Amino acid sequence: ELAFVGFQLTFAVITVALISGAVADRVKFSTWMVFAPIWATLAYFPIAHMVWGGGILGGSGSSISGLLFGSTDGAADVAPIDFAGGTVVHINAGMAGLVLALVVGKRVGFGKVLMRPHNVPLVMIGAGLLWFGWFGFNAGSELAPDETAALVWVNTTVATCAAMLGWLVVEKVRDGKATSVGAASGVVAGLVAITPACGSLSPIGSIILGAVAGGLSALAVGLKYKFGYDDSLDVVGVHLVAGLWGTVGAGLLATETGLFYGGGIQQTVVQVVVALATVVISGVVTLVIALALKATMGWRIDEDVEVSGIDQEEHAESAYEFATRGGRMGGSFAPAPTASAREHEETHDLEGVQR
């Protein structure tokens, strides 16, 4: 049981971490540290129970699916499909990220200046690490080294490859260029989409699901400019959109109950209902928490700190230190130190002299 607890804990951890990407570069560390455990307690754990613990979004006879299409011996005749967290993790985090982005507001210069990834090689390394680790989430959710785990492994691989290609095709047609960052984003979109469906689809169905996910997410990331919300790392465009498609797509492509395999419309209806219920629950709970923290602690850092660099103000450090021969931070790439950073550095130097 402890091994299962630890495994499930990783899902809770990554779900909260995903949300932070929507509001990166502009929120107080202290407010985030209060938000994270409250949100996990009031949003993640209840939804995880609703879906996987026999709750109203699961497959019990008393669940929504059981009420819609009947039940037998306490189990819904048409149970929702969420093998490894399409609703619990990705729709949940994506909706929370959207709400937070709206409550917190835009970064300084959003929509006026380019805000590109600062290090493309690190983006690619991160995407590779995610892809590798995702096998643990998806195949590991079978909790046994059996044929289903093998199917999940293959489905996760082919869906992700297809999604990467789908994203690159959209980029090439729309922008004239296919990019490395686009490939990495397509990888994540494919991983997200296949997460709920990986145990129920064939490899061919997984390729279709992944290709559509990559194309949809590539189009969806531009919505933040059209509708005016600042989603720093495209949590909404990738996790919410691909999570919704993967959850609904399972109702279309599941080999036993999917609409395209002769299973009727029931599975698709159940998938849509569960996905929308997750959106509503996550959105409402997140909104209440976010507004309460905005009224008490406040979310935003000062504008000058945001421009000069949040890491220096919040943590007295930066990702890259360019030092002169004297050992002091400098060089043309060094950010201008904030008042608190200078005070921290001067105090550190004074302590060194005293010692």
TrEMBL record:
What GO terms are given for molecular function?
Answer: ammonium channel activity
Give the coiled coil ranges. none
List the residue ranges of the region (Disordered): 326-355
Basic and acidic residues compositional bias: what residue ranges?
341-355
| Chain segments annotated as transmembrane | 6-24, 31-52, 83-105, 117-137, 149-169, 181-198, 204-223, 235-254, 269-293
Membrane topology reported for the UniProt record? Multi-pass membrane protein
**Database matches in Gene3D superfamilies:** Ammonium transporter AmtB like domains
Which cellular component terms (GO) are annotated to the entry?
plasma membrane
Q: Which ranges carry the Ammonium transporter AmtB-like domain?
A: 3-320
Q: Where located?
A: Membrane
Q: Which domain of life is it from?
A: Bacteria
Q: Which UniProt keywords apply?
A: Ammonia transport, Membrane, Transmembrane, Transmembrane helix, Transport
Q: Which family does it belong to?
A: Belongs to the ammonia transporter channel (TC 1.A.11.2) family.
What is the recorded name of this protein?
A: Ammonium transporter
What's the source species for this entry?
Phycicoccus flavus
